[in-house]
Write a structure and sequence with these properties.
Blueprint: E1 16-22, E2 25-26, E3 30-32, H1 44-48, E4 51-53, E5 56-60, E6 66-69, H2 71-85, H3 92-105, E7 118-127, E8 140-149, E9 162-165, H4 187-198, E10 203-207, E11 215-218, E12 222-227, E13 230-234, H5 243-254, E14 258-262, E15 274-279, E16 283-287, E17 289-291, E18 298-300, H6 307-320, E19 331-333
Parallel strand pairs: 9-10, 9-17, 13-14
Antiparallel strand pairs: 1-2, 1-3, 1-8, 4-7, 5-6, 5-7, 6-19, 7-8, 10-11, 12-13, 12-15, 15-16, 17-18
Helix pairs in contact: 2-3, 5-6
Length: 334
């Protein structure tokens, strides 16, 4: 495989790991050498979107060790999403074992350290039993798939990436499902995101849907801004709790920065020295400009270059690949 040609796209690998929940019990984890599954055509996942998922990565380090980054946090977030949907989620031990198995069964697809690419793991829960009533599913399938990937969005080799504020639709509703990692939160942003990319934007930034005055998050990642020695990220019940953002906040504190998690007015974008999108898929994507189609305003980073964003990025990826000491014990070595 030519690692240099990798993109953030689906690649068929050797196997997926699966387990079924039925009659109140989880089955043993199984290795399936196929990427096809069979579910009832009237399942709640197909008809009502009863589905939760996660995203994490396996990294081959500079020392050739293989690491998972904070998988316990992913297991916890999946359980939280599942509880919102009223479906069971696997125990933490099963979740982590399934992730380990997915890496081991697809080890030939784990990119080398020098490539900068990773093995992306996609755990998901779907309701599979047939039903037409609006109730949570009693039969659930747990899957962990593995796909080799590069960066998700934007040009990570460039410090210049534009973002567009979404003004013609909302991603989630107040007091809705925005803080949970479920499929229904992502489908409303797909077409808008594609249009934004066709116009040259690396990301689409959403405002709160109640007042349209505050920053929420990007389509699939959190927002943060750097103002002087302050790391500022929005606080809202509609934002997905990002494991990457949480980690970056800890790193920022270790760098001597003040971390502020609070409401961020749209106009405050004009005051940031640097801006970025952050998440598992993109890690840290520097944003140089944010365009508001309603007012025609262009919010630009004030500082030359992206030094703080780059330092945050390099520290986080350094921990994930063993280059930087993991003092918080975030990584699980396989």
């Amino acid at each position: 495989m030519n690692w240099n040609e990798l993109k953030f796209k689906y690649t068929k690998t050797n196997a997926i790991i699966v387990a079924n929940y039925s009659d109140g019990e989880w089955s043993h984890l199984q290795v399936i050498n196929d990427d096809k599954i069979t579910i009832n055509a009237l399942s709640a996942s197909l008809n009502y979107g009863l589905q939760a998922f996660e995203g994490l990565k396996a990294y081959r380090g500079y020392d050739d060790k293989i690491r998972l980054f904070r998988p316990i946090e992913n297991a916890s977030r999946l359980r939280r999403s599942a509880e919102f949907l009223g479906i069971p989620s696997p125990p933490e031990s099963m979740f982590i074992e399934a992730c380990k198995m997915a890496v081991q069964e697809n080890i030939g697809y784990l990119p080398p350290y020098e490539s900068g690419a990773t093995l992306y793991l996609r755990p998901l829960l779907i309701g599979i039993g047939g039903q037409i009533d609006l109730v949570s599913s009693n039969d659930v399938l747990f899957i962990v798939a593995a796909i080799p990937v590069s960066s998700f969005a934007g040009d990570k080799k460039s410090s210049f990436n534009k973002a567009l504020i979404a003004r013609d639709h909302d991603r989630t509703a107040p007091m809705g499902s925005g803080a949970y990692k479920i499929g229904g939160n992502y489908s409303p942003s797909i077409v808008a995101g594609q249009k934004a990319k066709q116009q040259g934007y690396a990301a689409l930034l959403y405002l709160d849907s109640q007042t349209r005055n505050h920053i929420d998050e990007f389509s699939s990642s959190n927002f943060f801004g750097i103002k002087g020695n302050n790391y500022i990220t929005p606080d809202s019940p509609n934002i997905l709790p990002s494991i990457t953002n949480n980690s970056l906040m800890t790193i920022a504190k270790d760098m001597g920065m003040t971390v502020q998690k609070r409401a961020v007015l749209t106009e405050e974008l004009a005051t940031f020295d640097q801006m970025a999108a952050c998440g598992t898929a993109i890690v840290v994507l520097n944003i140089s400009e944010i365009h508001d189609p309603l007012t025609g305003t262009v919010y630009s980073s004030k500082s030359e270059g992206n030094s703080t964003n780059k330092k945050l990025h390099d520290t986080l990826t350094g921990i994930q690949t063993g280059v930087v000491y993991d003092k918080n014990n975030w990584c699980l070595e396989l």
